[in-house]
Design goal:
Strand content of chain A: under 5%
Radius of gyration of chain B: 17 Å
Order of helices and strands of chain A: HHHHHHEEHHHHHHH
Number of domains of chain A: 1
Largest sheet of chain A: 2 strands, antiparallel
Oligomer: heterodimer
Largest interface: A-B, 23 and 32 residues
Structural class of chain B: alpha/beta
Largest sheet of chain B: 6 strands, mixed
Helix content of chain A: over 70%
Number of helices of chain B: 10
Shape of chain A: globular
Distance between the termini of chain B: 35 Å
Helix content of chain B: 25-40%
């Protein structure tokens, strides 16, 4: 009798490990994607390219929430800043390319200048935000921190958008394509160069980001701060420096996403609103503060968007992910990858 | 090595420590004893920089450390093991130790330090890849002490290693501290377990209501009438 109960107790968690909601959704999603991509490979390409960019946005958002407990609503405006930087850096480069169409270095590497500068400017804005706003708030009071920083970032977002509108106007300004070359053949599917580079940049950046968090001394310190600030200080980790780095990194990634994606979403003052919402979908879907989950969630959301856009209609693209999030929150309030153990990199 | 003079400290409107005088010499194993709420933990937190001293001086190797941020104090070579351990629950034992060695830049030194603490706590070595959040209370305490040892601090502040532990893990924790002390680490220990502690340490201070009321060597305090009556139940 006792042994029977004991084995039962052992089997329940095992069963639940494989039959839970998260893995069910992942399996269904993977299967759907495989079926669809056989029918229409361009959907797969789009999912991977945009999913990678949402992963950069959502990863940064999750990092800021995990390390600093800030629910950032200014994240989308960093995306907007990224599109602006790309616009102003690439436009002169574009005319240089037109003047010297045979300069291959310029033609192939020129577009990256805007992306790199966008990352740097985003990081600088992140550091300034920490120095001028969050540090001042932290020094005065840590009560109601989450609510206060939410209001602070929401207000900051309104400021960003209005300053951008004042300076650059309300009209969309974009770059139709970074690389003026014919589509490249990938496994029998013609893929536009911009799409391909978007995908490669996203994957490369995510890999570096993951390695940094997982393996480097500073990345480890960041995760330590997100798990236990007092413990981190005991180890000699200065919180201020980690906070600065966290904001620099996450804002830099958002600006990079904006710069890379400008061929898809041209600059307007509110171009960041949609990526911000998507990043929040992803972060809520994955579980707050969980960077690894956010990356997987980003590809899920991108897939749902692509499938909705293709099979239903483009204006349903935001409706379906939101619907799924409501369902997830009803049945698993901690998010798909949420758990008892809180931290930026934990499942 | 460590010298507290006339230290007063506390939280917002509640002052806890009143004129605390305390000294720890190099190589010594010193304890702070006393009842609940006497200010033992506050004393350690004040030294480690988590609570700011309102008055008085705290000197470490002749230099004042009053008002330094906690991570600066840690970098001077003062390790602090808190009563709640403050481990990184989502990291493995090994990774916790690596974060503990954050201030050490030399990778060889880190590796040899990891070997050293694993030698001291073989139990941690067995479970090196297990998440810290899944450890038992005794293992957590060991990991907390091990993490505190990673930067090879010259002074280790240890807050109530026996808190919440069963008798056997408690003894194991004390045994580890004894070994550490024999290897030359200076330790300032806070405890409520008066009998065991007094048999273990070189010297002890008795703290009551934020003031040092007694001090002496282990045997001296064990034979002291007030100590016997109040703490040993003799």
């Amino acid at each position: 009798m006792t042994t029977a109960t004991a084995t039962n107790l052992k089997q329940v968690p095992l069963l639940r490990r494989y039959l839970n909601l998260t893995s069910a959704i992942l399996v269904v999603a993977a299967a759907a994607m495989i079926v669809v991509s056989i029918q229409n490979p361009s959907l797969l390409v789009n999912t991977l390219a945009t999913g990678g960019m949402w992963a950069l946005m959502a990863g940064g958002l999750a990092l800021v929430f995990g390390v600093m407990n800030i629910p950032s609503f200014v994240h989308g405006d960093l995306f907007m800043v990224g599109t602006l930087v790309a616009l102003f850096v690439f436009t002169p480069i574009q005319s240089m390319i037109q003047d010297a169409p045979n300069d291959f270095v310029l033609k192939w590497l020129g577009p990256f200048a805007g992306m790199i500068l966008a990352f740097i400017l985003g990081a600088v804005i992140g550091v300034l935000m920490e120095l001028l706003l969050f540090r001042q708030l932290r020094r005065r009071s840590r009560e109601q921190w989450v609510m206060n920083t939410f209001l602070l970032t929401a207000g900051l977002s309104i400021m960003f958008e209005n300053v951008a509108m004042m300076a650059f106007g309300n009209l969309p300004q974009g770059i139709s394509r970074y690389w003026d070359v014919p589509p490249i053949d990938v496994l029998g599917v013609p893929v536009a160069m911009d799409r391909l580079v978007t995908f490669i940049v996203a994957m490369g950046t995510l890999a570096v980001f993951a390695l940094f968090l997982q393996r480097s001394r500073t990345g480890r310190a960041m995760r330590a701060v997100s798990m236990d600030e007092t413990g981190a200080q005991m180890a000699g980790i200065g919180l201020t420096r980690i906070y600065q780095l966290t904001l620099a990194l996450s804002c830099g990634l958002a600006a990079l996403a904006g710069a890379v994606l400008i061929w898809l979403t041209p600059f307007t003052p509110t171009v960041g609103a949609s990526p911000l919402l998507i990043a929040w979908y992803v972060v809520i879907l994955a579980g707050l503060g969980n960077v690894q989950g956010a990356v997987v969630g980003a590809f899920l959301v991108a897939m749902v968007q692509q499938l909705t856009g293709y099979y239903l209609a483009l204006n349903w693209v935001d409706v379906l992910p939101t619907g799924i999030i409501i369902l997830v929150l009803l049945f698993k309030p901690s998010g798909l990858f949420g758990s008892e153990v809180k931290g930026v990199w934990e499942q | 090595m460590l010298k507290l003079k006339g230290v007063e400290s506390g939280y917002d409107l509640l002052q806890v420590l009143w004129d605390v005088e305390l000294e720890v010499d190099e190589g010594e194993f010193v304890a702070i004893l006393g009842p609940n709420g006497a200010g033992k933990t506050t004393t350690l937190r004040t030294i480690a920089g988590y609570v700011r001293a309102l008055k008085g001086s705290i000197e470490f190797n002749g230099k004042s450390i009053v008002g330094l941020e906690p991570h600066r104090v840690s970098r001077l070579g003062i390790g602090y093991v808190s009563e709640s351990s403050n481990l990184f629950a989502g990291m493995s034992i090994h990774e916790n130790l690596l974060v503990g060695a954050y201030t050490v830049k030399n990778k060889q030194l880190i590796a040899s330090q990891v070997d050293l603490v694993f030698e001291l706590f073989p139990r941690l070595h067995e479970r090196r890849n297990q998440l810290a959040g899944t450890l038992s209370g005794g293992e957590r305490k060991m990991l907390a002490i091990a993490r505190g040892l990673m930067p090879s601090p010259s002074l280790l502040l240890v807050d109530e290693p026996s808190l919440g532990l069963a008798p056997i893990p408690t003894l194991a924790a004390f045994e580890a501290l004894k070994q550490l002390s024999q290897r030359g680490t200076t330790i300032l220990l806070v405890e409520q377990n008066v009998n065991t502690t007094l048999h273990l340490v070189d010297r002890a201070y008795v703290l009551e209501q934020g003031k040092v009321v007694l001090e002496g060597t282990g045997p001296q305090l064990l034979s002291n009438k007030d100590v016997q009556e109040a703490y040993l139940g003799i």
